[in-house]
Amino acid sequence: MCGGKNKDMDSIKRQLYLLKDQQPKQHFHWARPGHTVLYEGTFQDLKLSSIGQSMDENDTTIISSIEHARTQPMDRSYIEMVVKYDKPNDKFKPAATAILGDSFVRCLSNLLSEPTIYIQGKFANDTNRPFKTTGMQLKAINYVEDIEGAANIMRLLNERSDYTHIGITYSIILEWKDLKVTVKKDRSAVLDKLFSEKLLTDCCIVAAEGKEVACHRNVLAANSDVILAMLTSGMEESRNNKIPMIDISEEVVNLLLAYLYGRDINTAEMEEDIAYDLLRTAHKYNISSLQELMAVTLFNKSNDSFTTNTVLDVYFFTLNLEELTELCNKMLNILKSNPRKLIESTVYKDLIETSPKEAIELALKLLELGIGEPISRSLPEI
């Protein structure tokens, strides 16, 4: 795990129905031990629908991505409820099993943070006996006995002899974690004009390769107490009105300034390395709202959109930043999903040469976490 408990990021749970208010096609075979199939198929025939919350742009994007992924060939999945005999305790207990197709697991694990599925329902005409399983991680085989309402299920079965005629209504729900941006910047027509027309600029930011980008001292100082100190404390920047940011490109500087002047920046199409450069620049100059926006942007990117080098850069940058713990955990999940790419990356090879201790610590951490079991995370939403 990275850092400590996340204090600043607001995480929320998103949910979609994979199946809603369904009834088994065949009689529910509760005769102990027994089972009934809740779903068998490729998930391509299901209509996704949201639960309880209004749809925002991020939800729409995720649903569209899932819908597109479902057009690709999918392995069959199988979900059922069962009644197992617990021999040591000489009793029967309800459980749920899920055998999920590899393509379905890969699709959702790539798009979503901590995706799980769970089953909830009720016995027909008996709202006093609801049941709900705990969340099942998206892996090939799941088996859960932790069912809320299990005692009610067994009590009902003990009361009835016609097991196969006990009907249920059930839903299968997909749930994942999302991150929310807590600070929104308002756009100003005056600042917009200053930015676009460069009216009466009085300083500049020096980007990589010595590229100078004109801007306004007051705007920089109002957004960053670090830059304010640089411009007012007798440092070189206060004398020549040049802020050196030679570790980022002119493109990144222009995006930074657009944000500081109140413009919206397109995070949906932003490259991951650009978002990382903005993240570390925002942290360096204590621009907390931009740091949060970039953390959420990176957190919500699909796993396969990252290069291994960028993953490593983000991981080591966030490793000891408590407020970015969940982003760090996401990077770890990506690294442990494909250790071969890690070994082949130029950043890791350089790390072995320059900081062998850090390289070994990362390798040991990935071994400790194991392969294929995602670690917990939680962040904001755009």
TrEMBL record:
Q: Indicate the segments forming the BTB domain, all copies.
A: 201-269
Quote the SUPFAM superfamilies the UniProt record gives: POZ domain
> What protein name is recorded for this chain?
Speckle-type POZ protein
Species = Orchesella cincta (Springtail)
